[in-house]
Design brief:
With 279 residues, the chain is α/β, with parallel strands linked by helices. The longest helix has 20 residues, at 194-213. The strands form 2 sheets. A 6-stranded parallel β-sheet has the order 1-4-3-2-5-6, with helices on both faces. The radius of gyration is 19 Å and the shape is globular. The model has no long low-confidence stretch (mean pLDDT 97). The protein folds into 2 domains: 2-174, HUPs (Rossmann fold), CATH 3.40.50; 192-270, 2-Layer Sandwich (Pantoate--beta-alanine Ligase, Chain: A,domain 2), CATH 3.30.1300. It has helices at 7-17, 35-47, 65-69, 75-84, 95-98, 118-121, 125-140, 152-165, 194-213, 219-232, and strands at 2-4, 24-29, 50-55, 89-91, 144-148, 170-174, 236-244, 260-268, 271-278. It is built from 10 helices and 9 strands. The structure holds adenosine monophosphate. Adenosine monophosphate binds at residues 29-30, 36-37, 39-40, 147-148, 150-151, 174, 176-177, 184-187.
Length: 279
């Protein structure tokens, strides 16, 4: 696997592999890789002639400086994991490579996506995501890029970015990979104690309970019950809400003609965790 640190190294690699008709898959990550990331890479390797992953902890998308400072880093292990699934190259730029002093910030109107759920709670987060993914797409020019549905709202933001600037890039959104306990894999789980992980696995149980209840009771009652279950475990809930899964438009009663999504954000041991379920 090629390790590429600069834009020149990346371009040299791309010029070697680019032939008419080759398919290039791309998996952007912030590292501290786990089975969730690796599923995206495996899917790309299966579906393309070449796969590039990127590892870049993008400070711009951290609205909380201590979250950025504490973000886990495991470079050697990440490289081994990518090699084990036959990833062709990993792009690991520095901040200067990603955002040279004269880089041009792009603008993108995210509409409702900026005003619901993660939007208002993490000011600047999606703008940071948009800036970095714009630059990565511009550098790598993939045919297909892979993202995880665990970050559901981010998937819709990336879709908006594609529609505005990268109409030729095909997007693939992959299902959330979970531990046996139901806990969604996340680099942030590494900051949890064993007890914290057990508590965190309760999130998906609550989401699944709400989904199961949705055939019997209305949304607001099901969510109220979900909040009650979390309160009983003393889990600090930031939000537990539902929306139209196509648009993230919140509602008052379950959507009958569209899929519903229930989204959750909590703090456990000071670590912010998110998850969702679509039905
Ligand atoms: P991150 O390194 O957290 O920025 O994640 C990089 C990519 O991996 C994003 O598209 C995430 O949505 C995706 N991802 C993270 N965790 C999971 C998971 N448990 N299952 C599937 N995809 C995931």
């Amino acid at each position: 696997m090629q390790i590429l640190n600069t834009q020149i190294e990346l371009e040299e690699f791309l010029s070697k592999i680019r032939k008419k008709g080759i398919k290039l898959g791309f998996v952007p990550t912030m590292g501290a890789l786990h089975a969730g990331h690796i599923e995206l890479v495996k899917r790309s390797v299966e579906e393309n002639d070449f796969t590039i992953a990127s590892i870049f902890v993008n400070e711009l998308q951290f609205n909380n400086p201590s979250d950025f400072k504490n973000y886990p880093i495991s470079k050697e292990r990440d490289i081994e994991m990518l090699e084990s699934v036959s990833c062709d190259a990993v792009f690991m730029p520095t901040n200067e490579v990603m955002f040279p002093h004269d880089y041009k910030k792009i603008t993108l109107d995210l509409g409702i996506l900026d005003n619901v759920f993660e939007g208002p709670l993490r000011p600047g987060h999606f703008d940071g995501v948009v800036q970095v993914v714009y630059r990565l797409f511009d550098y790598v020019k993939p045919n297909t890029a892979y993202f995880g549905l665990k970050d559901f709202q981010q998937c819709l933001v990336i879709k908006a970015l594609k529609n505005a600037y990268f109409s030729s890039v095909h997007l693939v959104f992959c299902p959330t990979v979970r531990m046996e306990s139901g806990l969604a894999m996340s680099s942030r789980n590494e900051r949890l104690s064993m007890t914290g992980k057990v508590e965190a696995s309760f999130l998906y149980k609550v989401l699944a309970t709400i989904r199961d209840l949705s055939v019997h009771i209305e949304a607001l009652d099901a969510l109220k019950y979900g909040r009650h279950l979390l309160q009983q475990k003393n889990i600090e809930v930031e939000y537990l809400e539902f929306a139209n899964a196509d648009t993230l438009m919140p509602g008052k009663t379950w959507f009958k003609k569209n899929k519903n999504i229930v989204l959750i954000a909590v703090y456990i041991e000071g670590v912010r965790l998110i998850d969702n379920i679509v039905f």
